Amino acid sequence: MTDTHRKDLPTPRAIGAPGRVKEVASAANPIVKDIRALSQKRHRDETGLFLVEGLKLVLDGLEAGWQLKTLVVAKAALEGGSETLMRAVSRAVALGTDVLEASNKVLEAITRRDNPQTAVGVFQKQLTPLMKFDLAAGRVAVALDRVRDPGNLGTILRTADAAGAEAVILIGDCVDPFSLETVRATMGSIFAVPIIRTKEADFLAWRAGFQGKLFGTHMTGTTDYREPDYGASATLLMMGNEQAGLTAGLAESCDLLVRIPQIGRADSLNLAVATGIMLFEARRGALSL
Ligand code: SAM
Prior knowledge:
The protein starts with 20 loop residues before the first strand and ends with a helix. By secondary structure, the protein is α/β, with parallel strands linked by helices. It has helices at residues 30-37, 41-47, 55-63, 75-79, 83-94, 104-111, 150-162, 180-186, 200-208, 248-252, 271-282, 284-287, and strands spanning 21-24, 49-53, 68-74, 98-102, 119-124, 140-145, 168-171, 195-198, 213-217, 223-224, 235-239, 256-259. The structure holds S-adenosylmethionine. The site of S-adenosylmethionine has 14 residues, from helix 11.
């Protein structure tokens, strides 16, 4: 690894110490190895960090005030004169973030993809504690029981963002919201929707003091999902696991179990699709749809 500070980069207007710009050409570099390891949940848990691919998503994260620890950028794109990339580098350096100018090979190794994006950000994870979460009347949030599919979770976070939901609560053994696949599927919404992780027992304890209405979605629900007046109070929509639906304990904790009517041969809807339908119905008043 060469460790040269690029003199052609704009001087950062740093408040604290500016970040350093380094060049890395080899995937065997220890910093690159640490970044690559973030594809594993164990390393994300240990470090509290996660990876974000693509300049737009990195800028979304910065805009939302999330802490960018390291920015990896494609050396070739920088040398090719990409102004947006250059601006992102300046901004990162000014914030005290270290920047790595990487070869294409290094970016391929980090993202495990051919044709990698020109920027990859290493961000600090952020979670909201359930005990600090309060849902006001007229607002909507989503609770997911043991969601297992990263694509589903990413799509749900993106949809929750689009529908103006206040939070997504992950109950029980859910897939990691900060996995590369989930973050990809959120298309930037990972930074927009507060995420809460909780055990089922802790959720049920919190639920006992929840003043709003808890609507469970269930294949055996007897109420059409279009019947309730979701705007009347704080609304929490609860969705079940892809295979097993809701646990008996969670289903019992609901004020009402609703069903989305289906015709055709499918047993059920995809979890993310069902969540989208519920969210946009519950937010119909707010969205004037
Ligand atoms: N075999 C599972 C069951 O019987 O519950 C199907 C689970 S479904 C793939 C995943 C989740 O999506 C369900 O637990 C529920 O929350 C929601 N869902 C899917 N289709 C639905 C429908 N027609 N009505 C209400 N909820 C639905």
